[in-house]
Amino acid sequence: MPLKGSKNNLSSNYSISDVLKTELLNEFERDDSVSSRALQEGINSSDYNKQRFQRNVDLHFDKKKALPQETKWSSLYVGQEVPETALIEKKSSRKRRLSVPSDDEKNAAINSNSENSSAVTKVLKVDGVPVVEGISLTDDVLEKILPRGFTELTPPRGFSQNANAVERVEAATSTHYIPPTNQSNNIPSSLVPTVSSSHGDLENIKEEDVKHFGHLLSSREADLEGDAKREFQSMKLILKVKNGSQITRKRAMRSLTENAAKYGPQLLLKQILPILLEPVLGEQERHLLVKLVGRLIFQLNASIQPYTLELIHVLSPFLIEEDSTVRNEIREILTNLTKIVGFPSMISALRPELDHVDEYVRNLTSRVLAIVANTLGLNQYLPFLKAVVKSRRSWTARHTGIKSIQQLCILLGKGNGSAVLPYLTHVIESIAPAINDEHPQVRIIAASSLAQLAECVEPYGIDAFEPVLESLWNETRRQRGKGLAALLKCIGSLIPLMKFDPRYDEYTNFYTAELAFLVSRQFSAPNEDMRKTVLGIISSLPLSKRILPDYDLKVVKPFFQAFWNRRTASDNEQVARLVVAATSHLATQFDYITIMGYVIHFTKDENEELRRLAVKALYAIVGSKPEESLGMSARQIESLIDGALFAFQEQTIQQQIYLQAFGTVAKALGVRMKPHINSIISSVLYRMKNKLPEVRQQSSDLIAAIAPVIKVCSAHDDTLLEKLVLILYESLGEVYPDVLGSIINALYFCIKSIDTGTLLSMSNPSLNQILPTLTPILKNRHEKVQESSVRLIGLIATQNAETINAKEWMRICFDLLELLKSNKKKIRIAANATFGHISKTIGPQDIIVMLLNNLRVQERQLRVCTAVAMGIVAETCQPFTVLPAIMNEYKTPERNIQNGVLKAMSFMFEYLDGNTTKDYVFAITPLLEDALLDRDLVHRQTAATVVGHIALNCFGMNLGRDYEEVFVHLLNLIMPNVYETSPHVIARVLESLDSLRLILGIGVFMNYVWAGLFHPARKVRAPFWKIYNSAYVQCSDTIVPYYPNVQKMEQENNRFAIEELDLRL
């Protein structure tokens, strides 16, 4: 009940009492918890990748000077040799630290605030116009804000502005930080800039674009001149690249690239780089702008040098993006930038960031330095690295320099250190002093970098690492925690290098035994990084029974006690994957059957995650060495199958790993599974009747996995497979498409495993019953059902097609035509292959007629798939059964049909060999002649492809001399097409010319090229030089005797004759 005298409303009936409300308000006043908004801001600020939005990047392009060409870094980092002037220069050029601003920076900030406030005061004094939330309240603005009826009052006579108001404004300015208000800027929509009618081509502008492209809305290009006009044009093009359609983007991108020198680097980068710093920038927009920056850098060349620092600051944060495509794009751009501006400029730009207080900035700097080293080579980078590592001024500089080597090795990849190997000794000498550094972070990064170096140059380079082995080992015995993990990983990475070199066998045995002892002591370490390190080391050590005689007591059992538990199973996926790899490695190196027995024990655990981990380990162990299972006893085989079957039955979340593991075990055991087949089938059939569709689907998939093993176990008796076929056939009325696809797939493998003789006599169901049942299923739109059905129909057409009526096959062929429209490529491939199988059964005549009629459709994909099907039918039934109908259809004066015929011939001759092709060369030459003389580009393009396939087929059988006249005639028809500008046409024309060069010989072919190489018109020379370059690359030796003979040229005192080139063999 509301209180007496209070107003009744709907909310009062659902409100809490006043007493409770008062108590909650009092409690809220005493509450010191963090608000949800503050928590979210804290989460965003702690996100490593989002720190680039919090950096203060200086992008003032007004005053730019060229970066120095020479940098004497050796004197800037060695503490004993630093001159005082260099220290002053270093201090003045250092970038502002985000967390610890200097006194000068604080004063500058105060001065800037006072300047801003004085500017506001000046506006108030001079113009007398108040400013509210950044908007000057002029008469025009007030007219839009205020409703009608308001009039402007004239000030009374003798009125003067109160000077105290200005003083109050000045007094209100403070040097302290003022938190922003939580109020939204309630700016009327009439004041928001909109696209004016004079800028109709800016229809894609967004609200967030007004910040950077607002100049386009307030100006007109016709009113501007000089630099202002160029800025307007470039800004307009950048907006089109960012927001335009595909065609608009391409045109704008091309215009910006071609006119980059006209606009200049300052104008373009001043507009592009601030946009890349926006947090709201979409992935596609970012990709387009980054792509534009890369092209501009390539076009502007050396003029980009003064802006190296800004480019690095904006682009380097993308090096730690999760998307690998973005990282690769930025690496390529920074590589091109390094090649253009050179090593001194890059180092001068990056040097202030080496000892930055923010680890985020140092991380980016190390990655950019790695790109610089990879681009220009370690021979230039090594002196700089040595100077940085010797620095005594700051440990952060040493850390960043060493980390750049680690990032370089990650960039190159494991086993791809050919660029590092020649300088490996010098690199290790540079890093070696850091192993005993006074700062633990430097020691850790030094050990990690050496480990990455070892993995990068594996299996070479142990000689270079030998000088640091002793110091690494001594540090390993002294360190704990993260330092120990890094050193253990380093030693573990060096052991494969020792194993590869026979001279270091003693080293290998010693360090393997000692490291295994140290690692086993860390099995129970609570630190997550240590656990991952230990598992990685175990997976790579060359363990053996000779090195560790008591391996079971010292390694295997402690390993299973520490890692094979429910905590590990419920841990993240990376740890579980490492445990599986380590277990598989131990089983391979030590006792295979014993370790498998340990794993089998966990397949019957109550915890499902631990059972899943055991199944993954079984899949890895049995799959790595299936032949080792031959030593298992009958009792062990029974335990293995029982464990795998129990884990399969007890799963609550259906996963593919159970099927993969069971299939691998069944394949490895083979005929030894015979005593257990009945129990497995019983379990599977029971699950086939489960209410859950996922369970039925997985059971069907398991039948498909073990069907070949059932055939092996049953020898010549296919009774069990026939029963499975009957059960699966009765399940074809399944409602769920995923389950139906799995049932059809299982039916496919069962029928494939049955002997051909048994298929002919199989009556319940017979293939004559299965095929009509599949016909309506083909109309199902689910991709899995379509693919499985088409594969099964193709199998039936291959195994037992004679017993089925030809009309039924034609009905299926019409349904297969519909499947050629599928978006999934596998379905189209299976449908085309099935056309070939059916045509082999009932003959190609009716199928070719149906396919030729299908060429009249408008959909290009359907016509291409039809042409492929015709090529497959011709390959299956020989070309003479198909070619007459195809060539006769070419008479139809319709482009789609003629293109389809040429496409079918292209696929047909691509599939055939030279022995078959040679019989049809003269027959199809008139058709190709007509196509090569057609006005349609696609006709000539497809005909050139057909000529290329025929020429290559005949060249493979060495039939060039028998058909030389035909190919010379075709060359005469193709050669005029070299002037085509369409990229698709010219590519096919050049491919066919390469094929004709091979079949005719380089001498005859080059007679068509020599005259065009020296034509006065550039557009004529260009294609002929392209042809000549291709011939020179592929036939550089055979072209020598056919160079023009210039000894008869009428030039006195000049001798051009070279007798060696006139030799004829």
How would you summarize what this structure contains?
This protein is mainly alpha-helical. 65% of the residues lie in helices and 0% in strands.
Strand content: under 5%
Second-tier CATH architecture of one domain? Alpha Horseshoe
Radius of gyration: 39 Å
Q: Determine the fraction of residues in helical runs and give it as a percent range.
A: 55-70%
Poorly predicted runs are: 1-14, 31-37, 67-126, 166-175, 180-198
3D structure, described in words:
- The protein is an all-alpha fold and 1065 residues long.
- Among the domains are: 204-341, no CATH class; 564-714, Leucine-rich Repeat Variant (Alpha Horseshoe), CATH 1.25.10; 719-842, Leucine-rich Repeat Variant, CATH 1.25.10.10.
- The protein has 53 helices and two strands.
- It is globular and about 110 Å long.
- Mean pLDDT is 79; it is low at 1-14, 31-37, 67-126, 166-175 and 180-198.
- It comes from Candida theae.
- One of its GO terms (molecular function) is mRNA binding.
- Residues 89-117 are annotated as: Disordered.
